[in-house]
Amino acid sequence: MARLGAKAAWAAVLAVGVVVLGSGGRAAGQSCPGGFELSAGFPGLGTTGPNGPFGPRAAAAIAWDPDGDGPQPEMLVVGGIFGSADGVAANDVAAWDGRQWHALGGGLLSPSLSVGHGVTCLAVHNGELYAGGKFGIAASDATYVGRVAKWNGSAWVQVGPTLSSVNALASLGGELYVGGDFVVPTGAHLAKLVGNDWVGFGAALPGSIEEFNKSVDSLAVQGDSLLVGGSFARYIMRQDAAGVRTQVGPALATSFSGTVTSIYANGQDVYIAGSFARGTATPGVMHWDGAAWTALAAPATTGTRRLVSFNSDLYLSSGASTTTEPLYRWTGSAWTAVFPAAQFQSSVGVYDPEVLGVFDGHLILGGSFTGVRDNTASTTVTRLMTSLAWMDGAGNLGPISHALGARVASLSVYHGKVIAAGRFTTIGPWMGGPMLPGSPGRLAEMDADGFWLPFTGGLPTNNIWATEVFENQLVVGGEPFSVGGVTNTTVAAWDGAAWHDMSAGAAGYPVRLVAAGGQLWGEFVPSGGAPSSAAALGRWNGAAWQMFSSAGGYSGLLSTGAEVYATDDSTSQTYVLTPEGLSVLPLPPSETTDRIIGAVQGDLVCASGSNLYRWNGQSWAEAGDASIVATVATSRLSLPLEIDGVMYVGAQGGLEEILAWDGLARSWRVAAQMPASVGSARPPSMLPVGDGRVLIGGAFDSVFPPGLQQPAQAVQRAAYAAVWSVEPVSVTTSRPPSMIERDAGQSVVLEWELSPPPDGASYEWTGPLGRIYDGAYSNFGVVSGATTNALRLEQLIPTMSGYYSCQAVSACGTISLSRMYLSVAASCSPDVNNDGVVDEGDVDYLINVIAGGENPESVDPDFNHDGVADQTDVEALVNAVAGGGCP
Q1: What is the DSSP letter of 340?
Q2: Which of 273, 314, 498, 504 is deepest in the core (most CB within 10 A)?
Q3: Cα separation of 520 and 726, whole Å?
């Protein structure tokens, strides 16, 4: 681990290139302000973007090879309602190449949230990618692409005339088919693409899809025919390329109701699933074997059931909420639950996991869940997998991500590589996919491109809490684990070729390791105990650990170069650790206790009550105020870092935080905050990576600068690891009032100013009707400046009333600017004296008020709303009295 005063060592590390940290970091030549950069990503879909409260949710997935037999890998394309994938901004559609996520242009959005939005279905037709749904805007350029769009390699383009709502797409025999709830001139609910037109076809059957208030909700290919299911009555329809329609088997039942949401065909076998009922029964799934329909006794749940074949087994997602098992496998005679309901979690109580398809030997799961647990125990930590996960053939779930999958407890550099250790059992893509729960993990290394890979020396079988480089070996410690032939150990060392047991004499397992002055020390917790505080200190003597116990335990183990220190929690006094043992330091003058905080500029720093002291090796000197430490860091602090004379320490309070102190009285500040995804008993770990940047590991699910009440917030989703720059982030220097009132027909400019301004930022505005673009709208007035920090709204009308907000998006991240409310009154009245008549008396009244006279009617003399009450207001009123209307 990094130690204070070790800049020369870090220069050597940086010389070998350990500074490239993830595809979301600073672009080449990019000068970013301080704050967080995306490092390891966020495992799943994010809510950032103009999608409001409706996301994130994954609703469709398909495998697509963008260049056919070319060198590019096959990709997994996911559609739904979301604003990002693994931290990459991608509106409602994104592509995974087996290593990282990619946006497809700006994605697909709706012109208004009120008309619905989102991608509901995907198809590959003639090698090209198509998307269908309720979207209406290609987000990258505001082009209208109503309901069906094609990705041409650089942009989304509209396919055919605009349809009302699209639920399904299918490609068969060189034809593209679409199903949904729409009407075309030659039919309804089902059409194929002819040229650039949607054309209905086929002869109607009794109770067919063309009936009013019906819809097509599912399409599937069976040989050279198309299978069609939906809300039309009593049967599944088969349609061949010539348009000839037949029904699959006899009618299901005269009382058939509901909808068929999924069809799976295998040879002559057809399986259907949905929310339909058949008589008094609610089978939910039925099978046609070529001779008869059979109900498959599906669980009695409600929701969007889906069927997928995976590893020769049939899987059913039940569309269930938190009380029913979400996924089932057909055994040949019954459905058996794959996961208990408690394995999925949602912050809103509904997660609806659904099977979406198969990719790279994994079953793809989507829905609205926010995490996945290892088992059903109520105390089990939930791993972040938001709305998207995949399952291997053994039933293990993992995130589709290049992130680490749980808490990062320790960060080190060994032989020029960044090493992460912790509780994670998922490690971003390698070989055929991520490591999955149930497999060993807990150690990862970062490659030259910033991606996490399993540690090449081997993977421990239990949680690793501490790492340190000592005598050219990587020493790791944690709960009893096995690795590389070493079994049931709590400390082991990797020498670059083999593992060696170092647990002799250890009482418990280490939660912190520190090497200095040729000595290796550790804080040890009893086996079975929580890693929140250490019960004993240990010194490695070359053959075994020499233990030093304390009734209250120890905290604050750290070094200032050659010296190592720790605080005895029983006596609240600091000790210097030597090969001979522990020597107590004198207390600061007039104090009865002290506690190690960190070190700065070569001096040990401790807190006593609300005061700080520095130990220079000979004596204590007062150093300022420790109240922020006493308030925020109620438990442990991380090992400190010193960058350009400023000390940074990780703290754990209500959030995981980084505190900064430059050695001056009352100069503490909260430099960064990371909301914990689970209850956090440890501070974040930190590792400097050069250029004022720090790799941070912990149990957080997002990162942001301090002061959430401030208008400017650089908020990013990031799981367990992120890169933070010590420079201050952009802050707001001016902003519109939180409430602005205007009359109909007037104009207003909403403008924010940031300092320093984000380099190369683009601005995205949202209002009461969703995303805002330049142009004239019949129900919204005239808009300009929608891609700048100054939005101008002209010819205001009452429907423009509502909340407005803005995001500044740049290569350095996204800054969300606080919202404000615009109120547009229906009209203004030139009857300023309120006598019921519009005449010269109103003009005289306004002239008198502007001149400083009495104003019994409490009239605003700024009649033209330009901010100044003067002659121009009189002229505007004269024009209004003459019939010219309000300004």
Answers
A1: -
A2: 273
A3: 30
Going by DSSP bridges, is the β-strand pair 156-158/166-172 parallel, antiparallel, or unpaired? unpaired
Distance CA 625, CA 617 (A): 21
Cα separation, 49 vs 42, in Å, equals 15
| Sign of the alpha-carbon dihedral angle for 86, 92, 98, 99 | negative
Mean pLDDT of 490-516: 96
pLDDT exceeds cutoff 50 at 24: no
Report the largest interatomic distance among the alpha carbons of the chain, rounded to a whole angstrom: 103
Q: List the structure tokens of 453.
A: 């890979």
The answer, as to whether pTM is greater than 0.85, is no
Which residues are registered as beta bridge partners of 603?
A: 600
Half-sphere exposure of 496 (CA within 13 A, CB side): 9
Q: What is the pLDDT of residue 11?
A: 27
- Between vectors from CA 721 to CA 728 and to CA 380, what angle results, nearest 5°? 130
DSSP SS3 for 93: strand
Q: Give backbone dihedrals phi and psi of 485, rounded to 5 degrees, phi first.
A: 90, -15
Q: Label residue 111 by pLDDT band (50, 70, 90).
A: low
Q: Give the residue ranges of DSSP H helices in 537-639.
A: 627-632
574-624 residue pLDDT tens: 999 988 889 999 999 889 999 888 888 888 999 887 788 999 888 998 887
Amino acid at 72: Q
Contact (Cβ atoms closer than 8 angstroms) between residue 142 and residue 773: yes
* Of the candidates 529, 417, 531, 519, the residue with the CA atom closest to the CA atom of residue 466: 531
- Cα(481)–Cα(489) distance, integer angstroms: 5
E runs forming strands in 579-681: 581-584, 595-600, 603-608, 611-615, 620-625, 641-643, 646-652, 656-661, 669-674
Query: Do 582 and 576 meet the contact criterion of CB atoms below 8 Å apart?
Result: yes
Distance of CA 419 to the CA centre of its chain: 24
Dump pLDDT digits (tens) for 313-328: 999 987 655 556 778 8
Burial class from Cβ neighbours inside 10 Å (0-12, 13-18, 19+) for residue 707 reads: middle
Q: For residue 114, what pLDDT is reported?
A: 46
Task: Residue 616: count other Cβ atoms within 10 Å of its Cβ.
Answer: 12
The candidate with the shortest Cα–Cα distance to 700, out of 677, 683, 724, is 677
**Contact assessment for residue 39 and residue 20, using Cβ atoms and an 8 Å cutoff:** no
Gyration radius of the chain over CA positions: 32
Which residue reads 């909340």 in tokens?
803
| Cβ proximity of 521 and 564 under 8 Å | yes
Contacts of 716 (CB under 8 A, 6+ apart): 36, 38, 48, 87, 702, 703, 704, 722, 813, 814
